[in-house]
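WARN retry 2 of 3 for item q-0093 after timeout on previous attempt; input resubmitted unchanged.
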Amino acid sequence: MVVIAALVVAALVLVASVLGLLWRTTTGRARRVRGPVVRPEDLGTDALGARATLLQLSTPMCTQCPPTARLLGAEAALRPGVVHLEVDLSERIALADRFQVLQTPTTLLLDADGRVRGRIGGRPRPETLARELDLLLESPA
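OK item q-0093 returned
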């Protein structure tokens, strides 16, 4: 009986480790997408960035959202025409469905026209965010 219990525990540890590694490799990674156009009124704001917008989709209970907001704000401040907007999905539930948000924070990279051009699930890695934003700013619309 003890051997079976030990095998079950070992199997659970193995499964949890594999799932943790899988989650870790996908969180914070960017995907380039060509998504819908986001209008300022969809977000409850007057305007988007002249060159790009870092749209952070958050929830009040998200522990990774405040450090993500600091990172996105700092990255936007380094580049003229780039703004960071944070939207609370608990106040705009339809956006969670529209953008198929499965985790918070989720960051959408919008071009000057408001079109979704990239997506980062989870807390972005600083080097990934900088690279993706540079690519967005260099690419034609």
